[in-house]
Design a protein that fits this description.
The structure holds 2 protein chains of 2 kinds. By secondary structure, chain A is α/β, with parallel strands linked by helices. Chain A folds into 3 domains: about 80 residues; about 200 residues, no CATH class; about 180 residues, Rossmann fold (3-Layer(aba) Sandwich). The N and C termini of chain A lie far apart (about 75 Å). By secondary structure, chain B is mostly helical. Chain B has a domain of about 45 residues. Helix content of chain B is about 65%, strand content about 0%. In chain B, helix 2 packs antiparallel against helix 4 and helix 3 runs antiparallel to helix 4. The longest helix of chain B is centred in the middle third of the chain and has 33 residues. Chain B is flat. The chains are: A alpha/beta, B mainly alpha.
């Protein structure tokens, strides 16, 4: 067997490892093993690449990799679980950036006059999609890290500017196809970065997770494009795996939010006005707000309490206090479980990660479909920083923007307690009837503070 | 090499179907780890980055190659480590709870920046 064949064989084994890694992630039991299989495949692929005939700059490669490891491992080790979505955004962005750079480097390294048209197309695609993913992820990171406002950023003539950038990119791409000019390719890179920024700016904070999944898929496609450029089956397979599965995952996530993907990506342009207009208007209705002590007594003497955590709990990083409260209640013999909406938290599935981190046992977490039949027998539904995911308008008001979204039926519980910062509507920007329900008690404030007060109140009750 | 492109297109199309097939039954609990896990897999661009740097002939190519290797390495190690940390917590069952509470030291290592 020649050296080239051996290397290709190892690449094939690596590709199988990646497929098994994704496959493993479909059950919690095998997920970790799958991830290790994927990492081993990656290690094998990287290792045999050193054996590529004629590969130079070995030390430069090793030093550059050492830099990456020295920065990446500590960052990934120490990041808090609540900050995980932005970390994933960053790692995704650098991957997209790397794909764009690989495509550019390959382009400028070739004797340009003789390049086939489809080769240039592959480079253009790799640069465009990689750069959009890089810049878009950077903005998504800034939004999640609260370096910039999470609300949709809109400005005058937004659509006109988008159209101009889009047309300019298409024009440039054609020009590059004709001239094979490196200078124009650099301009394309800059415009693609700009496109990534203006694409993400109008997307609201609560939708950013779906966006990250989409950008993840984009990076996969950019990697696949680099694979075409470099004649590498491994890159094509791995990139396409991620591109295709990421696309599907993005669709699954948006349907869990009851919205279409175009609606999530482009709704900010039109919907902001209607959203704020409808929400602020009718604040005259009475709202019952309680003291921590009242609510503490209500909880302490209940038989069954369902905790419904949401975005607000993640923002306040209140998962550990929530567990404290649940433990205190359980010590008094109250039956407690958590009802998890599929899109609770800052990322679909994120709430499960946060509560797992706080050592909440697996069997206390109930997914929506499992929790809903039990809601009518609950004495108290304790809604912590959630809003849209319990809004009955999703079931009862056909005109509502969230109509059709599956929700947790908090309204069926005997009492409903909302821990909320204010009466402000949730991300969907619509009023929640449940807040005005006679069965509802509000406790205003930061989720973590409120939970701490409740822990004290339950202890005293 | 016009046959080459067809061969690669075949691989591309088949891989797309595999990608859709393998994740079509993922429960929503695992969406976050899945995103992070597939994120690690596209870090395979590191192999491409090594190749362009390894065969670089000019200064600019070397500079771009080095940048690509650094970024791609970040993607690979970050992706796999983060995914492993998440999945490690998912293993925590009531039975082996005392062993697993591995909370971050909270020593300001919030590596975001």
């Amino acid at each position: 067997m020649s050296r080239g064949t051996f290397i290709d064989l190892c690449y094939l084994i690596a590709a199988i490892g990646f497929i098994l890694a994704l496959k493993g992630l479909s059950s919690p039991k095998r997920a970790r093993l799958g991830n290790i299989v994927g990492a081993s495949g990656m290690l094998l692929a990287i290792g045999v690449t050193f054996a590529q005939p004629g590969l130079g700059h070995i030390w430069l490669i090793i030093v550059a990799m050492a830099v990456g490891v020295a920065v990446g491992v500590p960052a990934a080790r120490t990041v808090k679980m609540t900050a995980m979505p932005q970390m994933v955004a960053i790692f995704n962005g650098v991957g997209g950036g790397a794909a764009a750079l690989v495509s550019i480097t390959e382009f400028i390294g070739q004797p340009t006059k003789l390049v086939a048209t489809y080769k240039v197309l592959e480079v253009l695609f790799g640069v465009l999609v990689g750069a959009v993913s890089f810049a878009g992820s950077a903005i998504a990171f800034a939004k999640l890290q609260e370096l910039m406002p999470g609300r949709p950023v809109t400005y005058p003539a937004q659509q006109v500017i988008n159209a101009i950038v889009g047309v300019a990119i298409v024009g440039l791409a054609v020009a590059i196809l004709v001239t094979s000019s490196t200078a124009l390719l650099w301009i394309l890179l800059i415009l693609s970065l700009l496109l990534g920024v203006i694409f993400v700016l109008p997307i609201g904070g609560a939708d950013v997770p779906v966006l990250i999944s989409l950008l993840n898929s984009f990076t996969g496609l950019a990697v696949a494009a680099s694979g075409f450029t470099l004649d590498s089956n491994l890159l094509i397979v791995a990139g396409t795996l991620v591109g295709a599965s990421g696309m599907l995952l993005t669709r699954m996530m948006s349907s869990a939010m009851g919205r279409s993907l175009p609606n999530i990506l482009f709704s900010a342009f039109g919907s902001v006005i209607t959203a704020t207009g409808g929400a602020e208007g009718d604040d005259s209705r009475p709202v019952r707000s309680g003291t921590p002590d009242d609510i503490g007594v209500l909880l302490a003497y209940a038989r069954k309490v369902v905790i419904i955590p949401g975005y607000g709990l993640a923002v306040a990083q209140a998962q550990h206090v929530a567990k404290e409260l649940a433990d205190a209640l359980m010590a008094r013999g109250v039956e407690v479980f958590y009802a998890i909406h599929p899109v609770a938290g800052r990322m679909p599935g994120h709430m499960n990660v946060l509560l797992a981190e706080a050592n909440v046992p697996y069997d206390e977490l109930k997914e929506m479909d499992e929790a809903n039949p039990q809601m009518s027998t609950a004495d108290v539904a304790l809604v912590v920083g959630a809003n849209d995911t319990v809004n009955p308008a999703a079931k009862s008001t056909p005109g509502s923007p969230i109509y059709g979204m599956p929700i947790i039926n908090a309204d069926e519980a005997e009492h409903i307690v909302f821990l909320k910062r204010s009466m402000r509507p949730g991300f969907a920007g619509i009023d929640n009837e449940l807040l005005y329900d006679p069965k509802t008690v509000m406790l205003f404030g930061d989720a973590k503070d409120s939970l701490q007060k409740l822990v004290a109140a339950v202890a005293a009750a | 090499m016009t046959n080459g492109i067809l061969e690669y297109l075949t691989v591309f199309v088949l891989a797309a179907f595999v990608g859709i097939e393998v994740i079509s039954k993922v429960p929503s609990i695992l969406h976050t780890p899945l995103m992070s896990g597939s994120n690690a897999i596209h870090g395979v661009i590191l192999v491409g980055a090594m190749i362009v740097l390894g065969y670089a002939r000019t200064g600019p190519e070397e500079a771009l190659g080095v940048a690509a290797v650094i970024l791609a390495t970040l993607n690979v190690v970050g992706g796999f480590v983060v995914t492993d940390r998440m999945l490690e917590m998912f293993k925590a069952k009531p039975a082996d709870r005392p062993r697993s509470p591995k909370r971050d030291g909270g020593t300001g290592g919030d590596a975001g920046a």
